[in-house]
Design a protein that fits this description.
466 residues; alpha/beta; Aminopeptidase; Aminopeptidase i, Domain 2; 9-stranded mixed β-sheet; 6-stranded antiparallel β-sheet; 24% strand; globular; binds manganese (II) ion
């Protein structure tokens, strides 16, 4: 073994230079990380929508001994409760040994992902083909959604209050759906448009059928045949679409990427790649000192508005309600509380280096990204984490041997974005963004590193166990 030079020793001591996470792990831990990701891949395949994720995690939580929160009950250290908000957002909570006066530790991620929602009156026929009209949800690059296999997920509520769950296109043998695109032979006009305009939002129509009802000649016979099939399968009529939430998502399964299987390709890493590790960390923490509050929320991708998004009062009210069980005021608990806003960040892509400042970019495999502030241009719309709190989080991660790095979402003036951090910060809570770096973020098939997924789990757990 060669001795380190004085310069090398000094560099190690003085420079910030995050390593590949594998240098921080022994072989056993790398195997553990790979194993952890098998559970994550199942989660990705089973939970493609916020409703599916909320239902799946609620069932897991019940198995772990979580019971529905009762504002009139009293709780002891180690008690586990959950609060399900309209089947789309969920709070898990484990009471700590410390009084709530000393605050709670919150990890907040989201379980909605960019997708195509069906319009309220979606079904039509044109040229003896039946289609669904869609309205895209979240920031998508529309051209990425044509000519790929799609599946249909959601719920249809009938007028009498009964409802039916839909999940079609995932199981082997299920039919799937597709948005058609022009052939290159005839796309001269389309191909000369800017990428953003090449595919119009109004053209993201889902092909759903092509055979007419019976042999009767008439108009809309293909649509009639589809409606008849839907009536037989789901017991619905066309008006029931109005009271439905049907979401079109990529039908791909999560797969290992690369000869070394070091990465995972999947739909919906943003933000299940933070939601799953946060839930697993919450479950792993049995008797925390501080009460833990793990939130998997809805509507982040559209700005967190609405009563299942984090701009609404549901988290604030939950904290007020648990405070009341100890004779405390919600605002006193919030003031003493800390949060990790758990969301993905852009991973540096060597094919597109120009959008990043390499010194402040996040790299896949270098662990979780601690993002001091988000926003765009002059930090517009940002929650900028306080230096004191950044120091504390660094210390927690270093002490817990969690691989972490700093990262900004791209160059100044290049664009920008935000997460739920500012809505939690607005409650008076200390908060910083922490999450997994992603390649091809918001694409139908995003890529993450397995070691980073595992580091998210380790990091959230270290935070909740402080
Ligand atoms: Mn996100
Ligand atoms: Mn997103």
């Amino acid at each position: 073994m060669s001795e380190k030079t004085q310069a090398e020793i000094l560099k190690e001591e003085l420079f910030y230079a995050p390593d590949h996470a594998s240098y921080l792990c022994d072989e056993a831990e790398i195997a553990q990380a790979d194993d952890f990701c098998e559970g994550y891949k199942d989660f990705l395949d089973t939970c493609k929508t916020e409703r599916e994720a909320a239902a799946y995690v609620t069932a897991l939580a019940r198995n772990e001994g979580y019971v529905p929160f009762d504002a009139k009950a009293s709780y002891m250290a180690g008690d586990k409760v959950y609060y399900l908000n309209r089947s789309k957002a969920l709070i898990l909570c484990t009471f700590g040994t410390e009084s709530l006066e000393n605050g709670v530790k919150i990890v907040a991620s989201h379980i909605d992902s960019p997708r195509l929602d069906l319009k309220p009156n979606p079904l039509y026929e044109d040229s003896e083909l039946a289609f669904f009209k869609t309205h895209y949800y979240g920031g998508i690059k529309k051209y990425q959604w044509t000519a790929i296999p799609l599946s249909l997920h959601g719920v249809i509520c009938r007028r009498d209050g009964s409802s039916v769950t839909v999940n079609l296109g995932e199981d082997e043998g299920d039919p799937q759906f597709v948005v058609t695109d022009l052939l290159p032979h005839l796309d001269r006009k389309q191909a000369s448009k800017p990428l953003e305009e090449a595919i119009a939002g109004e053209n993201l129509n889902i092909l759903v059928g092509s055979r007419p009802f019976g042999t009767d000649k008439g108009s809309e016979m293909v649509k009639l045949n589809i409606m008849k099939l839907l009536n037989e399968k789901y017991g619905i009529t066309e008006a029931d679409f109005l009271s439905a939430e049907l979401e079109i998502v990529p039908a791909f399964k999560a797969r290992d990427i690369g000869f070394d299987r070091s990465m995972i390709g999947s739909y919906g890493h943003d933000d299940r790649v933070c939601a799953y590790p946060s839930v697993m960390a919450e479950f792993a923490v049995k008797n925390p000192k501080y009460t833990t509050v793990t939130v998997i929320t809805d509507k982040e991708e559209t700005g967190s508005d609405g009563n299942t998004g984090l701009q609404s009062a549901y988290l604030k009210h939950f904290i007020a309600d648990i405070a009341k069980t100890q004779g405390l005021c919600g605002r006193d608990v919030l003031r003493a509380s800390e949060c990790l806003s758990a969301d993905v960040n852009a991973g540096f892509d060597p094919t597109y280096p120009s959008v990043h400042d390499k010194l402040n970019a996040a790299f896949i495999n270098k662990g979780i990204v601690v993002t001091k502030y988000t926003g765009s241009r002059g930090k517009g719309g940002t929650s900028d984490a306080n230096a004191e709190y950044m120091a504390k989080i660094r210390n927690i991660f270093d002490s817990g041997k969690v691989a972490w790095q700093t990262g900004e979402l791209g160059k100044v003036d290049e664009g920008g974005g935000g997460t739920v951090a500012k809505y939690v910060a607005n409650l008076g809570v200390e908060v910083v963004d922490v999450g997994v770096p992603v390649l091809s973020m918001h694409a139908p098939f995003e890529v993450v590193s397995k070691l980073d997924v595992y580091m998210a789990y380790k990091g959230f757990r270290a935070f909740l166990e402080q």
